[in-house]
Amino acid sequence: MKKLRFYVLAVLMLLSFSNAYAYDSAQKFGRGLAGMTTGFLEIPGNIVKETKAKGAIGIPIGLATGLGMTVTRELVGVYEFISAPFPVPAGFKPILTPLYPWSYFE
Questions:
Q1: pLDDT digits 0-9 by tens, 6-21
Q2: In 3-state terms, what secondary structure has residue 89?
Q3: In the 8-state DSSP scheme, what is residue 96?
Q4: 3-state secondary structure of 81
Q5: Residues 20, 22, 24: CA angle, nearest 5 degrees
């Protein structure tokens, strides 16, 4: 039974990542799950982003921003995960950019 739940969850995640620009319930579920489980990637992601933009001074700025965004990403992840089953209103846009925390490293 545990394996079946894992496979169902894995299939749902794979289906939700198929089209990065589709703002539907499956994408919302995937973003929420990713935000809750990998929100810690905001710290190195923001350090990389700020260092590319500002040089060495970007390290402490990115660290501070990353710490704040980790909390934000996880809270928004919980919201998107819980609200995923409800209909997505027309014109819905994701709350955070980038959509997934690992997008900083692409």
A1: 665 565 555 555 444 4
A2: coil
A3: S
A4: helix
A5: 125
